[in-house]
Design goal:
Elements (H helix, E strand, L loop, with lengths): L1 E2 L5 H10 L5 E5 L11 H17 L4 E3 L3 H6 L1 H12 L4 E3 L2 H7 L8 E6 L1 H6 L1 H9 L4 E6 L3 H6 L6 H15 L7 E4 L8 H7 L5 E3 L2 H14 L1 H6 L6 E5 L3 H12 L5 E3 L3
Parallel strand pairs: 1-2, 2-9, 3-4, 5-6, 5-7, 7-8, 9-10
Bound molecules: D-glutamic acid.
Length: 266
Amino acid sequence: MFDSGYGGLTILKELVNELPQYDYLYLGDNARAPYGSRSYDTVYEYTLECVQHLFDKGCELVILACNTASAKALRTIQQKDLPLIDPKKRVLGVIRPTTEIVGNYSKTKHVGVLATAGTVNSNSYVIEIEKFFPELKVFQNACPLWVSLIENNELEGEGTQYFVKKYIDELFSQSKEIDTIILGCTHYPILKPLIEKYLPPNVTLLTQGSIVANGLKDYLHRHPEMEALITKHQLLEFYTTDSVEQFNAHASLFFGQEVNSKHLSL
Ligand code: DGL
């Protein structure tokens, strides 16, 4: 599993809960995070490099547990790079499983997406939701400061409250009828209690952990050839491209338990 930093750990936590039999290797590119404001070319180049490292370590299937990377790099890696690297290996993202189910939650048919500027500007959520639920109206708002606030452990101070309220208000200024919101960045579940405080009542807030876990379960059911290739010793390994001490100190907030990481040099 790959993420720009810590956010993907909120997804990994659910995968390990739901599918504990498999071996998981997590790579956080903390040295180059955040990805959210970077260009297409840069996100693609960084993501491909990290995916290649995970392949080199023996992974058959890599999940981009980062919406920004899923939005900006996934398609090119799937279509252009995988056939050259190894046509049997697979790379999946987190946007598709989320857009496949979002329509099941909305009654008003007005859905909101809160994500990084990169994900919002890519329009990936709008395009993908249109394929599965053309009747939905999708409203997006970028939350450029949330990742930095989370990475700096600023989870409830006055400044954080201000920016949580501000981005939510900007979303609802586009439509008062939004009744379902996708937290389209894997960091954001850490702010869930605060986000809920500023949401109007009766709005469903979707986080991606269990959605991706169910999506993976379904994928492996439909692809027994891939399921057979995945090793099953319940191993859990963590790699970071930055300081191991710093990663270990922050990661438990996202993963819910102590993490012992190794350094990976790019
Ligand atoms: N957690 C990543 C995502 O899901 C973004 C964090 C970043 O900006 O690097 O989009």
